[in-house]
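Re: [ENG-882] Designed sequences occasionally contain unexpected residues at chain ends

Forwarding the minimal case from QA. Structure tokens:
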């Protein structure tokens, strides 16, 4: 990757959304823009805070998609990342996910 670009692999969202009343909401219904999580597969040399292996939160509307070897990836600028998740071990409680 060049400059501040990131190559991110996203996990497909297979979860079924339901309303408070229990009705299934299909994926074709857009209530609001949902942010997506992905794992950074590659980072450019100018990326300062994001590195390969980080889990990042980004807006799916601000992305470019590319397919490599049958896998779908997203190309982002580092500035388009909203958060980086870190696994921080607590005192004897295992690991948790923190922003």
């Amino acid at each position: 990757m060049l400059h501040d670009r990131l190559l991110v692999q996203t996990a497909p969202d297979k979860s079924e959304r339901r309303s408070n009343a229990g009705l299934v909401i299909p994926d074709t219904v857009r209530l609001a823009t949902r942010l997506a999580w992905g794992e950074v597969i590659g980072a450019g040399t100018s990326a300062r805070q994001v590195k390969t292996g980080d889990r990042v939160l980004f807006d799916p509307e601000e992305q470019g998609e590319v397919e490599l070897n049958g896998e779908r990836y997203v190309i982002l600028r580092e500035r388009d990342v909203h958060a980086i998740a870190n696994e921080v071990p607590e005192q004897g409680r295992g690991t948790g996910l923190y922003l």
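QA comment: On inspection the terminal residues look reasonable. The CA atoms of residues 58 and 81 lie 5 Å apart. Proposing we downgrade this to a documentation issue.
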